[in-house]
Specification:
Mean pLDDT: 89
Order of helices and strands: HHHH
Helix content: 40-55%
Number of helices: 4
Distance between the termini: 33 Å
Number of strands: 0
Shape: globular
Strand content: under 5%
Number of domains: 1
Low-confidence stretches: none
Radius of gyration: 12 Å
Length: 78
């Protein structure tokens, strides 16, 4: 695995995923973990953006399609 991919599996990266916001598009400003699954499926079909955001969205896609989004809820900062 590339360094960027392995870095994502650290616990603090999940905290960051739970608290990062979508920087553009229809859901700009939404927490990534609150993006609807069909939007992530669309990205999966069209291609995730490059870089960190793409890795986050791809990871979130896997989390959501496997029904694991409940794991991110406790990590959201109030």
């Amino acid at each position: 695995m590339a360094k960027q991919e392995t870095d994502f599996f650290r616990p603090e990266m999940l905290i960051e995923l739970a608290n990062s916001k979508m920087p553009f598009g229809k859901y700009q400003g939404y927490l990534l973990c609150n993006l609807p699954e069909p939007y992530l499926v669309w990205f999966k079909k069209k291609g995730f953006p490059p870089g960190k955001l793409g890795i986050q969205l791809a990871s979130l896609y896997e989390i959501k399609v496997n029904g694991l989004e409940y794991l991110l809820r406790p990590l959201i900062k109030k």
